[in-house]
Design brief:
single chain, alpha/beta, TIM Barrel, eight-stranded parallel beta barrel, 11 helices, binds erythose-4-phosphate
Length: 216
């Protein structure tokens, strides 16, 4: 499973990228706003750091404007994936932009039917939002499973990019299901390294080493 980091914070991207933990980046208008930077400038900088796909989202509701904005975003760098919302207009924009050879990430997916439409419109990535479904007492992981089954049934090449990930557990569950990509905040990716027994065991080893005067 590929790891994308869901942020526009350069320091976080660099730290994970240096460790080989980043196969791509996803941003959205809320993350860009949080960074306090100009979208073109910060997206260009991210594309210079990470060689994999960097999702940059349009901010429009009609297909024509989405296509125009998508072309501008795609001109920032070769590794841009234009992010469009899963609306009827977003699907139209996906069809046109993917037909021009641009990578397209269709976002805000909450049903298997939406994912099926995105695949038929030529999406490179479909982004089902796990956490936001869980917030409504629905099963976000079940959606990932359903999309995996449907895409495999028909050999769709659209990659499942599990999004809105809130915990390390979401990451391993997505990997078990066979999501192609998971995008998560840096804090979640780092939390995957944690275990209470690792901390406890390490504490004991350090104490025993100190007691025995082990020096290396
Ligand atoms: C993905 O592309 C989205 O930017 C993101 O995963 C949304 O996550 P959130 O629901 O935590 O805002």
């Amino acid at each position: 499973m590929k790891f994308f980091v869901d942020t526009a914070e350069i320091d976080q991207i660099k730290e994970l990228n240096d460790l080989g933990m980043v196969d791509g980046v996803t941003t959205n208008p809320s993350l860009i706003a949080k960074s306090g930077r100009d979208i073109t400038e910060v997206t260009r900088e991210i594309c210079g750091i990470v060689s994999g796909p960097v999702s940059a989202e349009v901010v429009a509701l009609d297909a024509e404007t989405m296509i125009e904005q998508g072309r501008k975003l795609a001109s920032i760098a070769d590794n841009i994936a234009v992010k469009v919302p899963l609306t009827w207009d977003g699907l139209k924009a996906c069809k046109v932009l993917s037909g021009e050879g641009k990578m397209v990430n269709v976002t805000l997916c909450f049903t298997a039917n939406q994912a099926l439409l995105a695949a038929k419109a030529g999406a490179t990535f479909i982004s089902p939002f796990i956490g936001r479904l869980d917030d409504l007492n629905m099963d976000g992981l079940e959606l990932i499973e359903d999309i995996r089954t449907i895409y495999d049934n028909y050999g769709f090449e659209t990659q499942i990019l599990a999004a809105s990930i809130r915990s390390a557990n979401h990451m391993s569950e997505c990997a078990k299901i066979g999501a192609d990509v998971a995008t998560a905040p840096a804090s979640v990716i780092k939390a995957m390294a944690n275990h209470v027994l690792t901390d406890k065991g390490l504490d004991q080893f350090m104490k025993d080493a100190a007691k025995a005067g082990i020096k290396i």
